[in-house]
Amino acid sequence: MTKSEQVIERAMAFVAVSKALREREQERRAAWKRRVDIGRPLPPLPRGLQLSLKLDRWDATDKN
User: Fold this and answer.
1) What b/e sequence results for 25-53 when a residue is b if at least 16 CB atoms lie within 10 Å of its CB, and e otherwise?
2) How far apart are CA 34 and CA 13, in angstroms?
3) Phi, psi for residue 39 in degrees, rounded to 5
């Protein structure tokens, strides 16, 4: 086997390993997404309560 053939062989092996890793990662993400999709929905958040800000009820000059 010549040097060129060895380089091509290693490149093809690298491509095969990369493809296998990519497919495995894609399957892992798909499985995770399925688990998330079938999980229980989050409970509704309680609505906020807006407090009134009545500044005119207090007078800085009032000593009482």
Assistant:
1) eeeeeeeeeeeeeeeeeeeeeeeeeeeee
2) 32
3) -70, 165
Alpha carbons 18 and 25: distance in angstroms, whole number: 11
Token reading at 62: 């009032």
In angstroms, the CA 10 to CA 3 distance is: 11
Give me the residue label for tokens 């092996």.
13
pTM confidence score: 0.53
Cα separation, 7 vs 4, in Å, equals 5
Taking the C-alpha atoms of residue 11 and residue 16, their distance in angstroms, rounded to an integer, is: 9
Tens of pLDDT, residues 18-57: 999 999 999 999 999 988 878 778 788 888 888 878 777 6
